[in-house]
Amino acid sequence: MVENRPGLKILSHIVLLIGVATVALPVYIAFIASTHGPTDFLSGLIPLTPGGHGWENYKTMLTQGMASSGAPPVGPMMVNSLIMALSIAIGKIAISILSAFAIVYFRFPFRQFCFWIIFVTLMLPVEVRIVPTFQVIASLHMLDSYAGLSIPLIASATATFLFRQFFLTVPDELLEAARIDGAGPMKFFRDILVPLSRTNMAALFVILFIYGWNQYLWPLMVTTDPGYYTIVMGIKRMADVADAEPQWNLVMTTAMLAMLPPVLVVVFMQRLFVKGLVETEK
C-alpha cells in the first residue's frame, strides 16, 4: 500500500528527476558536442552549452562523411542499417510465428523435442557461433551483401517461445468454431491467430528493430565494402583513428543522427508496444 504523504511525493519526484537526468546526460553531452568545432575538445574540457557549428557538422556528415576515417556519408549507412534492421525484425517475426503455430497446433513425431531444440539455441547467440557462421556465409558467397548481414540473425528462439506461450492461451473454442465453419489450418492462422497476435507482433517488432539497428560485431565481420557499412560501424571507424585525435564533434553528430530511427519507431509504436507487453486482444 502506498501512503499519500506530501513529503513522500516530493521524494519520489526527486528520485525520478535524478533518474531522468542520469539517463539523459550522455545524450545531452552528445548533442552539445555535435554543435562545436573540431578544436573545442582538445583542451580536455567538455563544453556544456551549444556551439555555433551545428549546421556545418550535420551538413558535413550527411553529404560528405569523414573521408580521413574511411567513413562514407551518413545517409547510405543509415539506409544499410534500416534494411538490416527491417529484415531482421520482419524475418524473425515471420519465422517465429509460423514455427510456434506448427508446434502448438500440429501433432507430429518429436514435436516437443523440436521445440526444445529451438529453445536450446537461446544459449548459442551469434557471438558464440560467429566463426562457423562466418565460414558458412563466406562459403555461400554472401559476404558484403544484405543477405549476409541479415539472414544469420533472423532465427529467434525467444520470439518462438513468446508466440508459443501466447497460442497456448488461445481458447480451444476458437479452433473448434473454425473447424465447424470449414476453415483449414492456414485460414485459421491467417484470419484468427494473426489478428489476435497483432499487438504481440508490434511489441516484438520494436524490440527486434532496435536489436538489428544496434548490431555491431556481425556487420564488422561480414562487410569490407564501404557501400554496406552500417551506421554503428561508421561510428566505430570514426572514433578509431591512428596517429590523430578523433574528430569528436563529427562522431557525436553521427551518433545523434543514428539515434533518430529507433526513437521514431518507439514513439510511433508506443501504444501498440505497451499494449503488446501488458495485455492481449483475446
Helix and strand arrangement:
Elements: H1 6-33, H2 54-63, H3 74-105, H4 111-120, H5 130-139, H6 146-150, H7 157-168, H8 172-180, H9 185-196, H10 198-213, H11 217-222, H12 231-239, H13 248-268, H14 270-278
Helix pairs in contact: 1-13, 2-13, 3-7, 3-10, 10-14, 12-13
Looking at the structure, what is the overall shape? globular
Low-pLDDT stretches:
none
The CA-CA distance between the termini, in Å, is 31 Å
Q: Roughly what is the average pLDDT, rounded to an integer?
A: 85
Radius of gyration, taken over Cα atoms and rounded to an integer in Å: 24 Å
Spell out the helices and strands N to C: HHHHHHHHHHHHHH
- The count of β-strands is 0
Helix percent band:
55-70%
Largest sheet: none
Number of helices: 14
As a percent range, the share of strand residues is: under 5%
Q: What class, by secondary structure content?
A: mainly alpha
Please describe the structure with a list of short key phrases separated by commas or semicolons.
282 residues; mainly alpha; 0% strand; globular
Summary, kept brief:
This protein has 282 residues and is mainly α. The chain has 14 helices and no strands.
Describe this structure as you would to a colleague.
- This protein has helices at 6-33, 54-63, 74-105, 111-120, 130-139, 146-150, 157-168, 172-180, 185-196, 198-213, 217-222, 231-239, 248-268, 270-278.
- It is mainly α.
